[in-house]
Amino acid sequence: MSVVTNTTTIGAIELPSRRNTELLLLVFAVVIPIFAYANVGLSIHGKLPPGMIAYGGGLAVLAGIAHFVVRRYAKYADPLLLPIGTLLNGLGCVLIWRLDQSQRLQNLAKRQFGHFSESAPRQMMYTALAIALFAAVLLLLKDHRTLQRFTYISMAASLVLLILPVIPGLGADVFGAKIWISVAGFSIQPGEFAKIVIAIFFAGYLMVKRDALALASRRFMGLYLPRGRDLGPILMIWAMSLLVLVFENDLGTSLLFFGMFVIMLYVATERTSWIVIGLVMSVAGAAVVGATASHVKARVTAWLDPFACYTKSGACEQVGQSIMSFGSGGVLGTGWGQGNSDLIGFAANSDFIFSTVGEELGLAGVMAFLLLYGLIIERGVRTALAARDPFGKLFAIGLSGAFALQIFVVAGGVMGLIPLTGMTMPFLASGGSSVLANWALIGILIRISDTARRPAPAPAPSPDSEMTQVVRPS
Fold first, then answer.
1. Distances (CA, A) of 303 to 49, 80, 326
2. Using an 8 Å Cβ cutoff, are 90 and 30 in contact?
3. What is the DSSP string of 219-273?
4. What is the pLDDT of residues 281-313, one digit of tens each?
């Protein structure tokens, strides 16, 4: 005797959201900066800083708000991006507060401006605004694919953002670079936001034109060279990057935009020839501008031998002090609050804040920070691989590539590996534009990862579903 049962199709399997993992990691991301804050106070003043509880509570509240928004509106997002961003931002505030305690920087500010104001409280305010922008991205951007509609609008918007700093009366010349605009007493760096806007254009354009750009007309020295008419887009972007370099004296933004385009072009076409062409064009453009633009030429001179012009050029003095900071840090560093990176001057909490990490935390601390940055880049690339649409893949890889290039040019500049670029270290450096733009970048990556990891909806039940006959022995 046997029993016959009928079964229907099984629904979709629910995937874990990893939100509890994110919450646990956020606890560590808040506790570690609090301990660092206490360590700085004990090292400099010999007692716990009075603002430690307020700082820790504020960071915990901001992290909790961000986590609630992700849990509610991006349930399946990557669980590492938010904790790593919180940890870097929190440690950045500690580094800025540590430099605020420097008597040298306080005296320097009083001599030049007549007063001294701490940067750490402003950085916490910028962090709160950045978390609000992060939440707004997740609330308003329900699907990243809607950005594809604004491909050419984003191109125009990015050009406007790049042109703003050179407009008389609006742009501000800071230490030779015209990358800032002044609005109602606040300074804004449009290039930080332009890298996100222009990534939208690159992703939308390359998604449509990738087949044409992948075609090759001839083979030369083992490389497949593209057709002449297909070189138009890369020549246009190359010219735009050179114009930014010439008119704004901004080597970092120029390298960032052109490098991001080449990376996305290679991912879209899988042609190694684009990488070679891009490197040749970037080296040629940098060589020409470096030999003609005085500001860029001074930075190249400081990079080649900073100690030869140490007493003659401010760029040489800053690079020399930075190199000595890394050298004096050794393997484990001098300890929180025990370094002398404040000798660099006002740039110590912006361009050269990574020098403080190298001196006070040593090689171990530098590698730890680079590992955290590397994890953000890796999660961004993983998100690009998991994305189900070509626009999302290119957009995620473009944002990750831009973030990686910015880390490289900033860290390489302060370590003497490449000439200084004037860009800021993401999440660490003082400034509202940088922290706002990078939290928006994290928010977009979280949205793309949520879409990529979200399980497909279960099919609707149908009375005509296939019946499976199972025979069980009696």
1. 38, 36, 15
2. yes
3. EETTEEEEPGGGGHHHHHHHHHHHHHHHHH--HHHHHHHHHHHHHHHHHHH--HH
4. 777 777 776 666 667 777 788 888 888 777 666
